[in-house]
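**User:** My hope is that you can spare some time for a protein that puzzles me. As I understand it, each token names a local backbone shape. I would be glad if you read both lines and explained how they fit together. The protein I mean follows directly.
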Amino acid sequence: MSVIENFEVSPLLQKSNFVRPFRITFQKNGVNRYWDGVKSHDGVSILIFNKDRRSFVFVKQFRPVVYYTCLRKLEGEDATSVSAEPHTPIGADGKPISLPSSAGETLELCAGIVDKAGVSLEEIAADEVFEECGYRVEPSRLTKITSMASSVGLSGTSGTLFYVEVTDSDLVPSAGGGNEEEGESIEVVYWPIERSSELLSMTETKIPVSAQLLLGVLWFQQNVKNL
């Protein structure tokens, strides 16, 4: 478990490398409208299945915005409201609220943003499989499941979901865990396929599970046979 300290929240005033807010104005059926959005990167996600272990290979990591939402709820703020200025949640004692880092941990597919020019989505996905989970796979081994519109009300970005089968022989010793230079600290989680149905209710009971993970597992149940 990570140790989270000095967690502070403030409005975004400096230029970000990952998001850029904007406003769209337009007319719809003769009525003036506007829409606020955030420009961000497209992404790739990879459902990894280890045939030797008969297990999915997921990642668990600390997500600051998930953690922040938990703190907002403890402070008493309506977490569905965006009218309040972003700030560090404060408790009744006048001190910043703190929780164990597990409050911000999520179970996800191996994934990454599309931020490299002239590189195929398969190549980006293969790089993420190695960087996060430690498996060396050629891009040609990945099967594209689908591309989907993600965050349709906020960014309108596209997410592409891949599937790849691996064995323990593909695993590189000491590899995986994320990019240390980017501050990533990723735990690799092996999830037996016999327990896949448990994932459908995990967010309600134990740990938040990403939508891409659920889609990938449902696809697997429908399309991957004779294991």
In short: The radius of gyration is 20 Å. The longest strand covers residues 157-166.
